[in-house]
């Protein structure tokens, strides 16, 4: 199947945002004024930073306040996520999808801040948020373009990333990972983030010793694998069905990061508890 794809165009606002961030001395006042020009964007950013996942001791009452507390790169990542959501889901029908993406994004951000294995490479906390937010965005693009995609992909639920990629390419002549990488590139994500998203299937194979990718791509996907594992554990937490053992890909990921299993389990337990009490920030 080969059909022209609808890829959400980059909003003009992101071009202006990139110009501000790319200047020798980025001005938070200019960014605040840019955000204030779009009422929907302004209210959405404030809603996100005051949501349970971002809860702070003090409520953030304005975009200027958000910039001073969170910093320009993190607010820029939030703007990208809000703009992306508006472009793909203008009617607001995919709440569960966006909630899941946001949860993984915040977990990626927290892990990047806590793991020296990650912070020593390009995956900063701000880039980690974008990585998590975008990790499954390709499936949203597929869903937008192909009416049969959602029921078809449910039948692939037990496939790994490489099998999913192969099946999607055979049916649609593209795959969710390629589309995520294209979208990230078009929307001014860092090059290594776009590459990490496009090569998710390859990176998982590389962690299993079956392929070769760059260290940046492998490290970014290792972070994403941990974040998704913690997210899944949190949802099992409410069903009282915590997993008894780690699967092979997760074990290989921990080995790659030189992160002892007991240390990871301590981090996981802490983040799951914080999610459960809405204290993750």
What can you see in these coordinates?
- The mean pLDDT is 86.
- The chain has 281 residues and is mainly α.
- The protein contains 17 helices and no strands.
What profile does the largest beta sheet have?
none
Helix content: 55-70%
Radius of gyration: 19 Å
In the predicted model, the low-confidence regions spanning at least 5 consecutive residues are none
The helix count comes to 17
By helix and strand content, what is the structural category?
mainly alpha
Indicate the mean pLDDT.
86
* C-alpha end-to-end distance: 43 Å
The percent range for strand residues is under 5%
Q: What is the total tally of β strands?
A: 0
| Sequence of secondary-structure elements | HHHHHHHHHHHHHHHHH
Shape: globular
Please outline what is shown here.
Helix 2 runs antiparallel to helix 4, helix 12 runs antiparallel to helix 13 and helix 13 crosses helix 15. With 281 residues, the chain is mostly helical.
Helices, strands, pairings?
Layout: H1 12-21, H2 28-36, H3 39-49, H4 63-70, H5 72-88, H6 95-114, H7 116-119, H8 125-134, H9 137-145, H10 149-154, H11 161-172, H12 176-186, H13 191-198, H14 200-207, H15 215-237, H16 248-257, H17 261-276
Helix pairs in contact: 2-4, 3-5, 4-5, 5-8, 6-8, 6-15, 8-13, 9-12, 12-13, 13-15, 14-15, 15-16, 15-17
